[in-house]
Design a protein that fits this description.
By secondary structure, the chain is of the alpha+beta class. The protein is built from 10 helices and 4 strands, in the order E-E-E-H-E-H-H-H-H-H-H-H-H-H. A 4-stranded mixed beta sheet has the order 1-2-4-3. The protein is rod-shaped.
Length: 287
């Protein structure tokens, strides 16, 4: 299955150091472009995140935001009695030095460094939680990209089916259009030459007829459509290959339009170009 480059995922877990939250957003990009916004106290986790994401995602711009908030355990943490005693002593000295100074408020006390007892740092447990959060977020992101990729593949296959119908309509028109084109050219040559030189006239007609024969272009278009279906069926990182095929389809459709010997063939060529452009736009979203 092919994957889209667009997706969103978020996962979180509670740790002794706080609530760990990982948010992933991915959009289109020619290559894998990782952007990190990591809490200062979790900077050491960036290489791990980079490794985990690169192992699961091949293309796309991925914004990774890792935050550490207050956990339930932190909300219920106790007071550091020793720190409060030291703060009281400092406040007493300050009052002696500055009579009439405004007393400390409760909020001031609680904000003083060390007053709230911090939980013991458990690096191993934090790393384990980070691994778990990263795995969950990546699973969710890849699932979202997979669902979007399935929709894109369905759209591409639908356009391929429409193009096959157009080619099936064009193929029977080619011999008749070439014959009519040959007759028109012969008539014009008779008018211009006026010499009755049948040999020269036949050579000129054969040359113009060869230039108006689009059997080769129709065959190549059908072959490229077969390859599009094969790539979609194979899945994986198919975006670049599909983009190349879209360019080749467009090149053959341009040639078909330029060599069209009849109005119906020209109209079909234009419809093919519109469908190819729709394919190209959708392919830009595929990993």
């Amino acid at each position: 299955m092919v994957h889209s480059m667009t997706g969103y995922a978020v996962a979180s877990a509670d740790t002794p150091r706080g609530a760990l939250t990982l948010e992933l957003r991915s959009v289109n990009s020619r290559f894998l472009d990782l952007q990190f916004r990591v809490a200062e106290e979790l900077r050491a986790a960036e290489p791990l995140l980079r490794e985990r994401i690169a192992a699961r995602i091949a293309r796309g711009k991925v914004d990774c935001r890792l935050t550490l908030g207050n956990s339930v355990s932190q909300a219920r943490q106790g007071l550091n009695v020793q720190a409060i005693k030291e703060l009281r002593a400092l406040a007493t000295e300050a009052e002696r030095a500055f009579p009439g100074i405004v007393p400390l408020r409760t909020a001031d006390v609680l904000r003083w460094p060390g007053v709230l007892a911090e939980p013991a740092a458990d690096e191993e447990r934090t790393r384990g939680a980070l691994d778990d959060v990263c795995r969950k977020a990546l699973d969710e992101l890849c699932a979202a990209r997979s669902r979007e990729g399935a929709k894109l593949a369905a759209i591409l296959l639908s356009r391929v089916g429409e193009m096959r119908k157009l080619l099936a309509e064009v193929a029977p028109l080619v011999p008749e259009a070439v014959a009519a084109y040959r007759e028109r050219i012969a008539e014009r040559l008779r008018e211009v030459l006026g010499t009755g030189d049948d040999e020269r006239m036949r050579a000129e007609v054969a040359l113009f007829a060869a230039k108006s024969d689009v059997d080769e272009e129709i065959t190549r278009l059908a072959t490229h459509l077969d390859e599009v279906e094969r790539v979609l069926a194979k899945g994986g990182a198919a975006g670049k290959r599909l983009d190349f095929l879209a360019q080749e389809l467009n090149r053959e459709a341009n040639t078909l339009a330029s060599k069209a010997a009849g109005l119906k063939i020209a109209d079909c060529a234009l419809e093919l170009k519109l469908l190819i452009e729709q394919i190209r736009e959708q392919v830009q979203n595929i990993e």
